[in-house]
Design a protein that fits this description.
Layout (H helix, E strand, L loop, with lengths): L21 E5 L3 H13 L3 E5 L2 H11 L5 E5 L7 H11 L5 E5 L4 H8 L4 E5 L4 H13 L2
Parallel strand pairs: 1-2, 1-3, 3-4, 4-5
Length: about 140
């Protein structure tokens, strides 16, 4: 590190935007989940990962209101995103949910948005796109 003159100060770095947030990721595709975990951890989040809806619901039951937000694949092996969202909301009514899918789910998104803070993002998505949606969801809770 170079020696700086005494009058020069280095500004403190800002905390990553998801610092202190616990996210529940419900994704059955290992590659997608692992990539999201790396991205989200780099943004400061802590992540719990479930490969199916039932495991996701169990993680929500055991971690309760410590979970700030759920990211879930719409097409899980044991249930669809609409069913998962309804069951999550039965436990925690205002829990923000970001649903992901390879196909746009306009009807599901419109219906689920009536039940609580719910956004949808279509795969493939960029780090910037998912971060934008996450920050929007966290701002409304």
């Amino acid at each position: 590190m170079p020696n700086l003159p005494p009058s020069t100060t280095v500004p403190p770095s800002a905390a990553p935007p998801l610092t202190g947030k616990l996210l529940l990721l419900v994704e059955d595709e290992d590659f997608i989940a692992e990539l999201l975990i790396i991205w989200l951890a780099g943004l400061g989040a802590k992540i719990l990962w479930a490969k199916n809806g039932q495991t996701g619901l169990a993680l929500l039951a055991s971690h309760g209101e410590k979970i700030n937000l759920v990211i879930a694949d719409f097409g899980l092996p044991d249930m669809n995103g609409g069913n998962l969202c309804a069951q999550l909301r039965a436990v925690q009514p205002r829990l923000p949910v970001l649903l992901t899918s390879g196909r746009y789910q306009r009807e599901a998104e419109a219906h689920l948005a009536l039940t609580g803070p719910t956004y949808f993002i279509q795969k493939p998505y960029s780090v910037h796109a998912i971060l934008t949606k996450l920050l929007q969801l966290l701002a409304v809770t």
